[in-house]
Design goal:
Blueprint (H helix, E strand, L loop, with lengths): L21 E5 L5 E4 L2 E6 L12 H12 L9 E6 L3 E2 L4 E2 L16 H11 L4 E6 L4 H4 L9 H19 L5 E2 L9 H13 L6 E7 L3 H9 L1 H6 L2 E5 L7 H5 L3 E8 L5 H18 L1 E7 L18 E4 L4 E3 L2 H10 L7 E3 L5 E3 L5 E6 L6 E6 L21 E7 L8 E8 L7 E5 L3 E2 L4 E6 L3 E6 L22 E3 L14 E4 L2 E5 L6 E5 L17 E5 L7 E8 L9 E8 L9 E8 L4 E7 L5 E6 L8 E8 L2 E6 L2 E6 L10 E6 L5 E10 H10 L6
Parallel strand pairs: 1-19, 3-4, 3-12, 4-7, 7-8, 8-9, 9-10, 10-11, 11-12
Antiparallel strand pairs: 2-15, 5-6, 13-14, 15-17, 16-17, 17-18, 18-24, 19-23, 20-21, 20-22, 20-24, 25-39, 26-29, 27-28, 28-39, 29-38, 30-35, 30-39, 31-32, 31-38, 32-33, 33-34, 35-36, 36-37
Helix pairs in contact: 1-2, 4-5, 9-10
């Protein structure tokens, strides 16, 4: 049922008294502000890895909450990582070119995600940005800027591939995530785009920190200025700079938020969406992450606008940031204009802020107000200076083209930290009398007043209940498409995808990366392949897999592991119980570290087959038991106390092909039973 503004009643033309309301004017008599570029979400750093594995019904519901207009967050921009087979926060994303002569536009999940977003909202803008790069792009020096033509070609082919393989038009392209830009490369990229008919793809530079260095370059270099559409900065703290404004470019918070999706995270996001423009004239804000869809235990767990981390159960969580996004996105569109500061944009006297936007034809008008208190809107970065918000009486006066507004449609949210919150609730229409409305604002509220009548709070039946990762679990990869990986596998170093080897094994999971990438973070320094699945809480666990080094591989070892911790950018220091099989030397190593520094025991293998072998590992208490092809190879009883719990993993000891099939994970009790049934001596 529609309600009258919750606890604060709109006091229109009534005779109820309010003492000295603060008056704010909304007019276009003195011109308009900047063009609005849209609110977006960012799928990068393997942040969407678990989403595609959801059951179809829940997956479609999640995608509707993200992208469907007038339903949920209704994002206006989708930004994605251009994968480079390099660790980029919570995993690696696959590249479209592993060598200069190889192209593949089926790998990974970003193509699928962009297609799903476009299917729901054909007007959504698409934005691509690299984190790491395949090693060949960096050449002998590892510097992608040494050969700008080659690097630009790699990016341009991704954009062309998006169109030819998926009919996706990429609207914006970035330089290199959180790494220093290069002016020659930016100019080369622009020339390469233009010469390939991609004049409509605009450059956002440089997805780095700080405004002034690049702004200076733009101001002093007309050619560079012409090449760049907007300056994109990460975590600007709602401010830009005088030099950035002098550049004349659109200013973007091209990555922001990165905050847990609780009520404080919602407050952070609501404050950013308004004050990025109020304080910094920023015309677009993009959240990392679009949604949190990576395993608990990995870095920044839960830092999304909603959470979907259980493809095995179908459970997901809607949260306040999702609905606070809708206060802006459901009532604006890319290409609208902000009103001028002081005449529709500004701070409220009692704390908080307001922005107003108008459609290009002048027919629609939207005001978004937020009154987020300091402690209830802290973001992960940067530090937030103290300020105060108090309840306040306000009067809005509409002049100029807006003097003819007769009715506004309110949508209201109240973040309540001691009880139930109200999130994105429609209220009764508000008549505008003599060009004015008058009302009270409380603390930790968001209010949209708009002429747009299409807003809607979408709702599906609740998702299935949360469940732990199911055991026993087994997969033979036959139901997974080539170039993909099952939805519960989260690659951490290298790249794992299904290959068809024919014969009795058919589809197998293969580690594909054969050259160190141009790294974005330390994980790739060790030159291995490494993927995880399961739960960070697993202690006593059994893992089994068929493994093979293909004929064209000189991989140093292939491993399975249990109790694996320390993933993401620190995957190079991962701890756990690792059983590695060296096919060349016909030996095994049991280690407490992903590298050879943690060797616990090792020995020769007498029963190693030339092609496929079945290897199993049981971790139970202080013991680790390993077998090969049904024969016991060790029973180690003094595991270090530092190896307590973690994921199941598998991988390769070097960057070369390694195959896995018929993976089985079970409880330690069941695993012990499996081993005893093979008549292994476990005494």
């Amino acid at each position: 049922m529609l309600r009258l503004f919750g606890v604060f009643l709109i006091l229109l033309q009534t005779k109820l008294s309010l003492s000295s309301p603060e008056t704010y004017y909304f007019t276009d008599k003195f011109g308009l502000g900047r063009f609005f570029d849209g609110i977006g979400g960012l799928s990068a750093g393997a942040s969407s890895v678990l989403l595609k594995g959801y059951p179809a019904q829940q997956r479609n519901e999640i995608l509707d909450y993200m992208f469907k207009p007038n339903f949920g967050a209704a994002f206006q921009i989708l930004k994605v990582e251009i994968g480079g087979d390099a660790q980029s926060t919570d995993g690696t994303e696959s590249t479209h070119m592993r060598t200069p002569d190889e192209e593949n536009y089926e790998r990974g999940y970003e193509w699928w995600l962009m297609l799903e977003a476009k299917k729901r909202n054909p007007n959504i803008k698409l934005y691509g940005l690299p984190w790491g790069w395949p090693g060949w792009v960096g050449g002998d020096t590892g510097n992608v800027y040494d050969n700008p033509e080659q690097t630009a070609m790699y990016i341009v082919k991704w954009i062309i591939g998006a169109k030819t393989a998926h009919n996706l038009t990429i609207d914006y392209i970035g330089i290199w995530n959180e790494r220093m830009y290069n002016i020659t490369y930016i100019k080369t990229l622009r020339k390469s785009l233009d010469s390939n008919g991609l004049q409509s793809t605009r450059i956002i530079a440089a997805d780095y920190f700080g405004w002034d260095t690049l702004s200076d370059e733009i101001i002093n270099d007309p050619e560079l200025s012409a090449d760049i559409y907007g300056i994109g900065v990460h975590y600007p703290g709602t401010v830009s700079s005088l030099k950035a404004l002098e550049s004349g470019k659109q200013l973007w918070a091209s990555e922001d938020y990165s905050t847990y999706d609780d009520l404080v995270g919602g407050g952070c996001w609501a404050r950013l969406l308004n004050q990025n423009y109020v304080n910094g004239f920023l015309t677009s804000t993009i959240s990392w992450a679009l949604l949190a869809s990576w395993y608990e235990g990995l870095p920044y767990y839960g830092d999304g606008l909603m959470t979907a981390v259980e493809p095995w159960s179908g459970h997901y969580d809607l949260s306040s940031p999702l609905w606070l996004t809708a206060h802006t996105t459901q009532f604006t569109s890319v290409g609208w204009r902000y009103l001028s500061h002081g005449w529709g944009v500004g701070h409220l006297a009692g704390g908080g802020s307001y922005v107003a936007l108008v459609s290009p034809d002048g027919k629609d008008f939207t005001i978004v107000i937020e009154t987020m208190s300091h402690n209830h809107s802290v973001c992960i970065r940067p530090a937030l200076k103290p300020y105060t918000v108090v309840p306040q009486d306000v009067k809005f006066v509409f002049n100029g083209s807006f003097s003819g507004i007769r009715k506004l449609y309110p949508w209201f949210s109240q973040l309540n930290f001691t009880g139930e919150s109200t999130l994105f609730q429609q209220q009764m229409p508000v008549p505008v009398i003599d060009g004015q409305i008058r009302f009270k604002l409380g603390v930790d509220q968001v209010l949209t007043l708009t002429t747009v009548t299409s807003g809607n709070r979408g709702q599906y039946t609740p998702p299935p209940p949360s469940k732990p990762f199911p055991l026993p679990y087994s997969v033979n990869f036959e139901d997974t498409s080539v170039y993909q990986a099952p939805g519960v596998f989260a690659q951490q170093i290298g790249s794992f995808e299904v290959a068809d080897v024919g014969g009795t094994h058919g589809h197998v999971l293969r580690q594909m990366t054969r050259q160190k990438p141009v790294a974005w973070c330390p994980a790739d320094s060790i030159g291995m392949g490494f993927t995880i699945l399961g739960s960070p809480q697993w202690k006593d666990i059994y893992v089994q897999a068929d493994i093979q080094a293909p004929n064209n591989s000189n991989v140093s070892s292939i491993f399975i592991a249990a109790r694996v911790s320390q993933e993401g950018c620190q995957s190079n220091t991962a701890k756990g119980v690792f059983l590695s099989i060296n096919p060349q030397e016909k030996e095994y190593i049991l280690s407490s570290s992903i590298t050879v520094l943690g060797i616990l025991t090792q020995g020769k293998l007498e029963n190693l087959n030339k092609d496929w072998n079945t290897v199993s590992l049981l971790a139970m208490g202080n013991s680790a038991v390993g077998s090969l092809n049904g024969e016991l190879i060790f029973n180690y009883t003094t595991l270090p106390t530092s190896v307590k719990s973690g994921f199941v993993a598998m991988g390769t000891g070097s960057l070369d092909y390694g195959d896995f099939d018929n993976v089985k994970i079970a409880s330690a009790r069941d695993g012990l039973h499996y081993m005893k049934n093979r008549k292994q001596n476990l005494r």
